[in-house]
Write a structure and sequence with these properties.
Layout lengths: L4 E10 L2 E11 L4 E5 L6 H8 L7 E6 L2 E2 L5 H10 L1 E4 L11 H11 L4 H14 L15 H13 L5 E5 L7 H18 L2 E5 L3 H4 L4 E6 L2 E2 L11
Helix pairs in contact: 3-4, 3-5, 4-5, 5-6
């Protein structure tokens, strides 16, 4: 059976500076894969290529046996609104919108009615333990509360793949563990695959498997931050 998501020989440069130099990665349905390594090794670039945010300069990214690198920007954006979810380190909530409006946004962009979208968004805020923040704006929330809302937004469409880029990097240890626990719980319940970028071995421990990047290539020893599983 083919992998749900795969990257083959992915190369990505920023000008004359190589970020990825031929990386291979497969992710199966329901699998949580941690991408670890030191700062500047290409972790976030790999995630952005796999999520269709960036196009590789060479190599292919395949989702359900389709090369999404050949898709238009509009088609890849639509994929991120429906079957992909993206969670960034600082949440990136829209400051002018309330929590429930932020979480409902992907559903509205996908064509859901406002009432339906708000109802589903409220359910996800409740699942993440922040239902009481539904009508608050991000500026009134703590960092952990914002990240829980951002996690709800990333999961509200019940994506097949969640891309989480240093999702606990701006949080204290306890809050980070709570957010990770919610991500893992929801992933297990819905069979969501997760690509989890982190520099911390404690975060990678939540994954089923860990790959280590170093200078834009896979570290075959798996000793960048811990033993590859």
């Amino acid at each position: 059976m083919s992998a749900l998501l795969s990257g083959t020989s992915i190369v990505r440069n920023y000008g004359a500076t190589p970020a990825l130099r031929g990386v291979d990665l497969t992710v199966d349905e329901g699998e949580i894969v941690a991408v670890t390594g030191p700062s500047g090794c290409g972790k976030s670039t790999l995630l952005h290529c796999l999520a269709g945010i960036l196009r590789p300069d060479a190599g292919t990214v395949t989702y359900r046996e389709q090369n999404i690198g050949l898709w238009s920007e509009a088609a890849r954006s639509r994929l991120r609104r429906t079957e992909f979810g993206v969670l960034f380190q600082f949440g990136q909530l829209v400051p002018e919108l309330t929590a429930v409006e932020n979480v409902a946004l992907p559903l509205l962009l996908a064509g859901s009615g406002r009432r339906e979208a708000r109802g589903v968004a409220a359910e996800w805020l409740d699942r993440l333990g922040v239902a009481d923040l539904a009508e608050q704006r991000p500026g009134t929330m703590s960092g952990g509360q914002q990240q829980r809302c951002a996690t709800a937004r990333a999961l509200v469409t019940q994506p097949r793949v969640l891309f989480a880029d240093e999702p606990t990097g701006a949080l204290d240890v306890l809050t980070g563990e709570q957010v990770l626990g919610e991500i893992v719980r929801v992933a297990r319940e819905h069979g969501t695959a997760v690509v989890l970028v982190t520099h911390a071995s404690s975060v990678a421990a939540y994954a089923d498997r860990e790959i280590v990047l170093r200078d834009g290539v896979l570290d075959p020893t798996g000793l960048g931050l811990g033993v590859a599983r």
